[in-house]
């Protein structure tokens, strides 16, 4: 893998921007026209499974259990601190590793080296996390998990606009969303199976992540970037590239904002789920309750994702799906707010799954259609992924304030619903995609 400077070369991005035709000087930067194979999609889906198991097993169950063991009286604050610090790392890591993968010159391809390196780092950090006995160590190791997992996620996300033609992206996005959901469900299964032994749970998450990337690496379809096709490097240009002007690229800006708001809504609904079941619903086995709710959520996400994504491909329309699914996600928050009983939680989980499945599939396809330049796909998708990571900073803080100071879980879930509705409203501002 090489990231060093190369002699000045013409910037290929203008010729290879979406819709530019076939003048691209290299397969790595060309706008894809050939459909990807089922084997390649399977590898992509499995990477998403592993990364999300590594993320959400700890977030939904193990970090909370670890926090209870260290200081039960301050468990909410510990959970918010650890997840918030990790999310802050991901804010930098995702666009940074995306940008580095854009410039990577390797016979192994541009994206695959970062998928492998990120998975190895996150695996090691998860194993270290299992033995953390102090809050500071939890913060350190979770930040390393986020660093590695986001390197892998930035690379695998950029592989989609690299290799998947526009009219296949809704379907592939739906399958990727299914993979994310299976990963979340797998994390919940780990949480229920280990019966409170979070050390074993972290080990299971680490193994799932490491083995999940192997099929993609063996069948990666990741054309290498020729040295002469890489633009010259300057620190000023590299750092300036992380700013995408809303005035010049308004569709990109509105797409980023709506994704951020919907993800804040979703994170606020789920971040204290373990504590909500334990402290409000008085569930006799909160970890099993999380698994049950996650299972319902997962089934509905997988159904709606694989239906809505290809449906939007056939219609050539994205915005109506995104608007409707955002409103459904908001409705899940209202259900949890005004029906704080086990039945209400079950219904809320189902509604959240219906909305988020359609949203994940179709919004992902929409986002790939508003990227400014093909040469910067990794960096730009990394910036888009900040809209997934930043809510992990905001949502725990908002959740902590709502639950501790401003009315409890009613305020938490109602606020989440309002934020989700704003995300639905702002989608109409996107003009370049129907």
UniProtKB/TrEMBL annotation:
Compositionally biased residues, Low complexity: 1-28
Coiled coil region boundaries: none
Superkingdom of the organism of origin: Bacteria
Keywords attached to this entry: Membrane, Transmembrane, Transmembrane helix
Membrane topology annotation: Multi-pass membrane protein
UniProt GO cellular component terms: plasma membrane
Location within or outside the cell: Cell membrane
InterPro entries: MFS (IPR011701), MFS_dom (IPR020846), MFS_trans_sf (IPR036259), Sugar_transporter_CS (IPR005829)
MF term (GO), any: transmembrane transporter activity
Main subcellular location of this protein, as a coarse class: membrane
Span of domain Major facilitator superfamily (MFS) profile: 251-434
PANTHER family xrefs: MAJOR FACILITATOR SUPERFAMILY (MFS) PROFILE DOMAIN-CONTAINING PROTEIN, PTHR23528
Name of the protein: MFS transporter
Species for this entry: Pseudarthrobacter sulfonivorans
């Amino acid at each position: 893998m090489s990231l060093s400077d190369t002699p000045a070369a013409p910037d290929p991005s203008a010729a290879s921007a979406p819709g530019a035709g076939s003048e691209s000087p290299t397969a790595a930067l060309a706008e894809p026209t050939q459909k990807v194979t089922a084997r390649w999609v399977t590898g992509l889906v499995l990477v998403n499974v592993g990364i999300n198991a590594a993320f959400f097993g700890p977030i939904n169950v193990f970090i909370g259990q670890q926090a209870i063991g260290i200081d039960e009286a301050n468990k909410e604050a510990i959970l918010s601190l650890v997840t918030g610090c990790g999310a802050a790392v991901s804010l930098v890591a995702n666009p940074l590793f995306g940008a580095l993968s854009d410039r990577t010159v390797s016979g192994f391809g541009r994206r695959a080296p970062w998928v492998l390196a990120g998975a190895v780092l996150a695996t090691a950090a998860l194993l270290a996390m299992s033995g953390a006995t102090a809050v500071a160590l939890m913060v350190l190791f979770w930040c390393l998990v986020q660093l590695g997992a986001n390197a892998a996620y930035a690379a695998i996300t950029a592989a989609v606009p690299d290799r998947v033609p526009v009219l296949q992206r809704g379907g592939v996005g739906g399958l990727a969303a299914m993979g994310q959901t299976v990963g979340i469900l797998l994390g919940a299964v780990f949480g229920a199976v280990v019966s409170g032994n979070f050390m074993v749970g972290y080990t299971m998450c680490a193994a799932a992540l490491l083995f999940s990337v192997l099929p993609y690496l063996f069948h990666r379809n990741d054309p290498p970037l020729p040295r002469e096709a890489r633009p010259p490097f300057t620190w000023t240009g590299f750092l300036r590239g992380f700013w995408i002007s809303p005035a010049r690229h308004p569709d990109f800006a509105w797409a980023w904002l709506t994704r951020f708001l919907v993800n804040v809504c979703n994170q606020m609904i789920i971040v204290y789920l373990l504590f909500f079941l334990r402290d409000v619903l008085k569930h006799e086995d909160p970890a099993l309750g999380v698994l049950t709710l996650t299972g319902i959520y997962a089934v509905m996400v997988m159904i709606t994702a694989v239906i809505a994504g290809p449906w939007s491909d056939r219609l050539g329309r994205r915005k109506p799906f995104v608007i409707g699914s955002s409103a459904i996600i908001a409705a899940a928050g209202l259900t949890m707010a005004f029906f704080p009983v086990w039945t209400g939680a079950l219904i809320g989980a189902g509604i959240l799954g219906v909305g988020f499945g359609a949203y994940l599939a179709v919004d992902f396809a929409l986002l790939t259609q508003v990227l400014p330049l093909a040469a910067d796909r990794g960096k730009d998708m990394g910036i888009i992924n900040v809209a997934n990571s930043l809510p992990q900073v905001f949502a725990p803080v908002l959740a902590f304030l709502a639950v501790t100071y401003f009315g409890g879980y009613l305020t938490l879930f109602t606020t989440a619903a309002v934020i989700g509705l704003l995300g639905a409203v702002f989608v109409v501002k996107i003009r370049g995609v129907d």
